[in-house]
Design a protein that fits this description.
The protein is an all-alpha fold. It has a single domain, classed as Arp2/3 complex 21 kDa subunit ARPC3 (Orthogonal Bundle). The chain contains eight helices and two strands. Strand 1 and strand 2 form a beta hairpin. Helix 3 runs antiparallel to helix 4 and helix 5 packs antiparallel against helix 7. The longest helix has 35 residues.
């Protein structure tokens, strides 16, 4: 992203700023509910973290996510579980984007451009996020807070008319809709983030990781 002696310091500052913006958005509840399971929230706060990823690179995106997690553990709701689950939703997504970018660069020399990057990265990001969050939600819903299954069952009946006979069926359908929520969230976190970074790149203040990856730097 930056060149010169102060590059590392600037990256740290940028990651921290993005994390701070994410915390601000979370604390002031810049969210909107997933209609089927309203306790699941689409978080605008993920966008600054993904912006850090696209701008400064994968490592700094993950550092931004870690700072976000650490601060929310102190000031956020449902701590420490809530902030940890936010981090474990974002981190696998970023790792999936990183893996896709690596495959795109090493195996295909980035010849497919931006479309190739997203075609490879988004499916990996989705799979990793869905797997991790499905496992976590299984533990939370079945062992830690089983009353959420009653809330989920009532929500599914009210919104999509789904009657679930028994706790096992309630768990299965809740995990299915939670997976759908996480799939949608990957697109809502990555596409707007790229649009922001693309607009910022026109200022030519610094070299951006995504542009360097695609040979546009």
């Amino acid at each position: 992203m930056y060149r010169g002696v102060k590059a590392g310091s600037l990256r740290v500052c940028f990651a921290a700023v993005c994390a701070g913006l994410a915390v601000y958005m979370t604390v002031y509840k810049l969210v909107f509910a997933f209609p089927v399971l309203p306790y699941l929230k689409f978080e605008v706060a993920e966008i600054p973290v993904v912006v850090a990823f696209f701008s400064a690179g994968p490592l700094w995106g993950l550092i931004s996510a870690a700072i976000y997690w650490g601060v929310l553990t102190v000031v956020g709701e449902w701590s420490p579980l809530g902030p940890a689950m936010k981090f474990l939703a974002v981190a696998p997504m970023l790792l999936g984007l990183w893996a896709g970018s690596t495959i795109h660069r090493r195996l295909f020399n980035c010849k497919w451009g931006l479309k190739g990057f997203f075609a490879l990265s988004l499916p990996i990001a989705i799979v990793l996020r869905v797997i991790v969050m499905s496992l976590l939600n299984f533990v939370v819903l079945w062992y830690l807070f089983p009353f959420f299954l009653d809330i989920a069952s009532a929500s599914m009946k009210a919104t999509v008319g789904l009657n679930v006979p028994g706790r096992e069926a309630a768990l299965m359908w809740t995990l299915i809709f939670t997976a759908a929520f996480n799939i949608i969230h990957v697109f809502l976190s990555t596409i707007p983030s790229y649009i922001v970074v693309k607009a910022a790149s026109k200022a030519k203040i610094a070299k951006l990781w995504i542009n360097e990856l695609l040979g546009k730097g």
